[in-house]
Amino acid sequence: MASPARSAPAARQRSQARAEGGGGRLGAALERPLWRALLGYRILTAGYAWVVFGLNYGAYEAQGRPGAGLGYLSLLSLWTLATLDRVSSARRCTAPFLVADMTLAIGGILFSRVADPAQEIGPTLPSIWTAGAVLAVAVRAGWRWSGVAAVLVGLAGIVEYGGPGRSTLHNAALVCVASIAIGYVVEVARASERALAEALRIEAATRERERLARDIHDGVLQVLALVQRRGSALGGEDAELGRLAGEQERALRSLITGAAGPAVPGPRTAPDAPDTPDTPDAPDAPDAAAVRPAEPAEPAELDLRALLAARAGERVIFSGPAGPLPLPAAAARELDAAVGAALDNVRTHTRNAAGVPARAWILLEDEPEAVLITVRDDGPGIAAGRLAAAEAEGRMGVSLSIRGRLRDLGGTADWISLPGQGTEVELSVPRAALRAAAGPAAPTDREGRTS
């Protein structure tokens, strides 16, 4: 059975990476435009407050205190410039900053009575800058806290005006509705982001389970099925071993298909098997990890033509390009394993008219847009509905070992079968998917094929 570390396809690795780290990146992408808009709003409205104050400066000199207004607007401008980085992300926009920001906004509304005691000049000193403070609460904390902040700003305006005037109530309602709407949209976006991250995590886990199921099918299940057949044929004690192998095969099929079934007893030790006594005085065995030779480095590419040509034999004929067909190592192994699963199906389940295992042909085509592999046999063909029935029975040769591998590589697997004319399996993987599996640094030839 192939090593899981080596047989894991690039698509599964990308899905797992998205599931593990995609949530934060997705969140930043969703919220970044809001923070940029809020930053621009604060700078523009700080300048607007200066423009309004300048236009009414003569009135402040005649019946107000222009010095108080100049002092507050200077403080407002310094605060706006000094806190530019605070409104760049949710992580930097902390609760203490929001409290200080709201304090400056509400304080500016109330301080307007000091600069304009007669309440006849115009808008408050911070003017519409106060809405930016409420919007910061909406983006950072959601619609509930933004509603509270909008109510506080509205109450401050009523106190500054001396009562619930028409313009005061209108401005308070406008800020309240806008902040609650934006806060609600932000919360919905964050909930969607979490749901997407969870879906990506489930997808990665499902693909990993399917990969393990393929490895089990290609190795353990086939060996157990072979032991069962050989044991039944030999009879005697070997028949009991074959029966146990058959039980374990059915249990594994039930496990990898997710079907619940009764517990199956494990294989029993043969009666004449001697117990291994404890030997404390014996010298310690050498550490397996210390004596195990180091595995050779994993090649970046493998020749798919060579892998498939090695499967040719007495009843399997291979035909392919004259030269090598290098592909990313993981993709080449997965395609070779899918072809091996198709050939196993031919050897195990297909007999021709003479009652002997059918012959099979492998055709490898190196096209500019895709790599195509065709596995054809001269058997009786597949009855309608047989593939779906085999999958329901827990036989994963088609659904996982072939179709699942091609899906993870970004390709497709199709079956063409006519009664009495054999079966043809067409495997296709686009070049674009192979380039993605190879990574951005993989060189390509003039036709765009991975080299």
UniProtKB/TrEMBL annotation:
Keywords: Kinase, Membrane, Transferase, Transmembrane, Transmembrane helix, Two-component regulatory system. Residues 1-25, 258-297 are annotated as: Disordered. InterPro entries: DUF5931 (IPR045975), HATPase_C_sf (IPR036890), HATPase_dom (IPR003594), Sensor_HK_TwoCompSys (IPR050482). Residues 1-19, 285-297 have a biased composition (Low complexity). Residues 28-197 form the DUF5931 domain. NCBIfam families: HK_morpho_MacS. This is Signal transduction histidine kinase. The lineage of its organism: Bacteria, Bacillati, Actinomycetota, Actinomycetes, Kitasatosporales.
